[in-house]
Here is the input.
Amino acid sequence: MIEHARGVPLGSWLTDLPDPGLIRLLELRPDLAQPAPGSIAALAARAQARQSVRAATDELDFLRLAVLDALLVLHADTAEVPVADLLARIGASAPADEVAEALADLIERALCWGSPDPGGALRVVAEAGAGLPWHPGQVTEESSTHGAAQIPGFVAAVADLDAPQRDLLDKLLAGSPVGRTRDAAPGAPPEHPVPRLLATGLLRRIDDDTVILPRVVGQVLRGEQPGPLELSAPDPVVSQTTAADVDAAAAGAVIDLLRELDVILANLADTPVPELRSGGLGVREVKRLAKSTGVDETRLGLLLELAATARLIAADFPDPATADQQDWPDSEGPYWAPTVLADRFAERPTAERWHLLASTWLDLPARPGLIGSRGADGKPRAALSTPLFSTAAPLDRRLLLDMLAGLPEGAGVDATTASQALVWRRPRWANRLQPAPVGELLDEAHALGVLGRGAISSPGRALLAGVADAVGGAAPSPAAAIAAISSMARVLPEPIDHFLVQADLTVVVPGPLKRDLAEELGVVAVVESAGAAMVYRVSEPTIRAALDVGRTGAGLQAFFERHSKTPVPQGLTYLIDDVARRHGQLRIGMAASFVRCDDPVLLAQAVAVPAAEKLGLRLLAPTVAVAQAPIADVLTALRAAGFAPAAEDSTGTIVDIRARGVRVPTPAERRSHRTSGGPSGESLTALVRVLRTVTSAPFDNIRLEPVTAMIVLKRAALEGSTVLIGYVDAAGVATQREVSPVLVRGGQLVAFDSTSGQMRDFTIHRITSIAAAQQ
Here is the structure.
């Protein structure tokens, strides 16, 4: 009779569960199978352990957690609760079919068990409260008194708190939200803090001695977005556009991102950045790099993290034979510089380059948005440093993209609505899914072309689908990668082979240039304005720079004539002819180096420059001088003095002696931080087969590990049941005792021993088995 009131124990319920049900349970809660339990009784005990319950509830949405909350309010942790009572408690807050679906899911996870039918009854694991991100009852009992309509009043009341009230609330906020006080009684002095807080709704009375801090009030005090408040999922959509518009915006973002990455890699190749002793890049170095590249510091931090994780940059010691350290910051090293892999990356098609960066971002175990913020030690977090590490970051990105992928095509969100939707999906992750961090994720996804105008792009959807199809946490298949790359290739504009030269010597590029054409244009012009339509500027210095690397005046004229869709302005033709006529009259070769010139007067002026003595520059003949300095130093000095010299080889041909930029070795590939997929289906089937061969009585005579023994004994103490324990005393004598557990604490069991007729203490690790006592 008593046993019927309490319901069927979880162990017995699991015993009667069909094999597919047990396999499904182990799939949903892989920690239950690692290590393999020795029996179904051990499986049941493990399923009720606090840590396992917390892991099982970590990925539940608000509706499922609210159902658990309601079951705990109805005391389903100690006795069966009719499903009709649960449905009456929830009322019209959620559709009946959604509640039924939530119950089925909770039962599949063995967080509650019994019959979910309207005429059935349910039990819930005793530790279910530990899996809630709030105190049990804070949702069910506050749904009518602390809803959305009351939140503005709570915000205003919090702003008007005096010091004693705020101190009291802060104590409840830092510890348990439940507090005991005599002032909770209705007749307490109204000027005391507790009655005043009760009157404003900032505290809720449980009884005459107990108050509790309401859930939404705690969220207001922490500065969080209050919620979730409704049992139905919120709609995060704030805008609607076409899929083509989303893809166009994503493609433009990808072009900008790759251009900025090229600039950063080139800058680091010319001037590597020293690594801090604590790791990463210093704040001043990041600011210098942002200024020299023209990339915003926030985007710069993201690109540095992606480049480092993708092994495009690394901290190492560049080869001294190829590294000109004249302009480097003073440091004993190592230096952050591009790797050898960066050269191969630059040669790959645009869509493939995007896929590497986007897939790297999806699994990036860091939060670039934290760069520059201060950690718990008060120090600013440096780019590429350990304090940015976060194993939860990939989970948050995946959750965001999963939510967006479930919306209609072209449906856009913003940081606030996305945060509300994500917190509803994962209430236990609420502190890291607030609008600010979600806004950072949205910005990163937009920068990478995974999103466009607040909606997921077609390439982003293909990227996510490839990850979702990967089995057991493995990397996406080559076919999935090809699908994502093909999707991006389709939305990217076709590279063009022309530009528009303007009368003001600007070159307008109305789309992405073919790579070889872009490189050639970059030799003779500099970027003046970046974007979907880039603008280059041609000037005397840029033309001279092109001539310095071996281009000719006639060749530059032909280049612009061949690729400009507009007539080449006469001003540009004259400028090229003028610079080419003056360029290269001075020729520098090896002595250490020599200078030759057909104009003796011009050569005499060059030898007379202030730097001549330092260079060891002297005349050998009217048209020839020699120097003790290398060619590069002589070129730099004479150009600084206003001359336009050119370097030549032994045949008299102008040569390019520009520094090629340093490279460091490519580091070993990092292991993926994807979570493991758990045991395979075959191993779970085999495990269930083994469990079926073991006696499946709730507390069969099996040797239990101490943690399992504590869980079983706590359950027996809660239910007031009697068990038979195998016990080895300090002398090594093994006995069996029939005991009624009363308290489990600190590795000790306090129980009534039927044999001796008195209360006794038992050391839990000496208990070898537990069995249900015969009634």
